[in-house]
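Hi R.,

As promised on Friday, here is the backbone we talked about, encoded as structure tokens. Could you run it through your design pipeline when you get a chance and send me back a sequence?
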């Protein structure tokens, strides 16, 4: 693949040279030209440029899709054409220039886009937290036994891991606000309200009464949650937009943030955040009831949860099922559904990361995928793979679902049960050992192997487009 300077040179020539360019900027993936005459540009010539992934004519701009290296190509382009460099623009501005007819497919795409745009920027945080967990697992009591649970190393690695996930709403408050064009500091502040220490302490006490400006509010611990803050920021977008429109310009700096928070604190605490929390509970209760109904219904429920499990983790809704499953385990000493699917579905997720690491040519993306794979299979943390790999290469998630569907049939028919609570890494197979059912751990291992092998093959062969494989590849000598 051509280097950044060559790409910039060829693209500029293909759009009619610097004489045809009124202005140019860029977003996360595209060069955005305002051209004097778009009619003279041949799209096929632009697409033929080595390093150009496609073109879009939209919003009065001629956009050339470059991919993640676009900031570097843009810098070279400005130097070659003598253009003044501008800050990157928000890719969501395109949506505001288009009026689209309603469709359920469009709604689903918009939701996925919102989730992706909010989750992907926090991948480094999740990855770092996961790798600290890997250190703890490798050197801790479960593997090498070089450190015990009372050591400082164990304490610090656990602290960093917990920080990454406990403050997840805070990180998402910032990224989701940026995604929607809301003031990021307001997203941060609203998330901070949801995990404020006195609210968390109240949720853990016997006194569960809370009113916000006289309005009763459910007392919930929103730490490590996803949906409450994502829903809250989405609502805040419209509240802030209203005040931006109606507050005099001289008063905007102070009163728009103040009035937005004045409205959003009660709206979020009393309605929106609890709704997000309850969405997980409703889904959890429904699936758990199906999983324990017996017969063909139970097998179908296992298949359904195996398919859905990665997506439940993405939205944070899996915690409702985990809570129910832990209660069942404490009472019965065995878990037959949620934790089983939670653990075994991870094998297909880990394989997705390995397949991407083996397939893509960009060294940076190889490193991200390989780090996610190690975080999962050794540290037992699937979020780096789901957020860092799955959202970027979302076609891979489809093949993970296919692999897990096949595994779900096997797990449902063979009645794989969980007899111990332990690691969620490769060592999780030890949790399926039972003196009364010696074949149980064998079936669990076979299920994991099927999921891993099938997901690895399917994602390697079909998970990535040609452009995704080649994107960011080192230039040939």
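Update: got your reply. Pasting your designed sequence below so it's all in one thread:
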């Amino acid at each position: 693949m051509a280097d950044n300077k060559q790409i910039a040179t060829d693209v500029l020539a293909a759009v009619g040279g610097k004489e045809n360019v009124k202005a140019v900027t860029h977003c996360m993936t595209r060069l955005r030209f305002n051209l004097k005459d778009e009619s003279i540009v041949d799209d096929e010539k632009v697409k033929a440029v080595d390093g150009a992934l496609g073109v879009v004519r939209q919003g009065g701009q001629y956009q050339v899709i470059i991919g993640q290296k676009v900031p570097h190509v843009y810098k070279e382009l400005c130097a070659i054409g003598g253009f003044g460099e501008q800050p990157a623009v928000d890719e969501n501005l395109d949506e505001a220039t288009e009026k689209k007819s309603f469709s359920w497919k469009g709604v689903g795409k918009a939701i996925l886009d919102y989730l992706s745009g909010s989750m992907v920027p926090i991948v480094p945080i999740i990855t770092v937290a996961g790798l600290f967990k890997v250190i703890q697992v490798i050197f801790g009591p479960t593997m090498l036994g070089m450190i015990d649970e009372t050591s400082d190393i164990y304490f610090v690695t656990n602290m960093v891991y917990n920080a990454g996930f406990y403050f997840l709403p805070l990180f998402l408050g910032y990224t989701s606000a940026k995604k929607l064009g809301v003031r990021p500091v307001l997203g941060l502040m609203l998330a901070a309200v949801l995990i404020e220490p006195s609210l968390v302490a109240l949720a853990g006490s016997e006194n569960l009464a809370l009113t916000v400006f006289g309005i009763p509010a459910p007392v919930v611990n929103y730490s490590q949650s996803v949906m409450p803050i994502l829903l809250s920021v989405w609502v805040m977008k419209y509240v802030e937009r209203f005040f931006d429109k109606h507050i005099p310009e001289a008063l905007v700096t102070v009163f728009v943030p103040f009035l937005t928070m004045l409205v959003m604190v009660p709206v979020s605490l009393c309605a929106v955040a609890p709704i997000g929390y309850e969405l997980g509970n409703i889904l959890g209760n429904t699936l758990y009831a199906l999983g324990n109904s017996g017969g063909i219904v139970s097998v179908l429920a296992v298949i359904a949860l195996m398919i859905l499990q990665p997506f439940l983790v993405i939205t944070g809704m899996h915690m409702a099922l985990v809570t129910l499953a832990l209660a069942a385990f404490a009472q019965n000493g065995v878990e037959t559904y949620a934790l089983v699917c939670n653990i075994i579905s991870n094998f297909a997720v880990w394989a997705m990361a390995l397949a991407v690491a083996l397939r893509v040519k960009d060294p940076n993306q190889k490193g991200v995928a390989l780090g996610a794979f190690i975080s999962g299979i050794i540290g037992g943390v699937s979020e780096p793979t789901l957020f860092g790999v799955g959202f970027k290469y979302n076609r891979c998630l489809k093949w993970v679902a296919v692999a897990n569907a096949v595994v779900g049939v096997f797990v449902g028919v063979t009645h794989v049960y969980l007899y111990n609570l332990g690691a969620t890494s490769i060592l999780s197979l030890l949790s399926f050992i039972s003196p009364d059912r010696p074949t149980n751990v064998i079936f669990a291992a076979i299920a994991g192997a099927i999921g891993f092998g099938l997901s690895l093959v399917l994602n390697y062969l079909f998970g990535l487009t040609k452009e995704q494989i080649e994107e960011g590849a080192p230039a040939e000598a």
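One thing I noticed while checking it: The CA atoms of residues 186 and 257 lie 7 Å apart.

Thanks again,
M.
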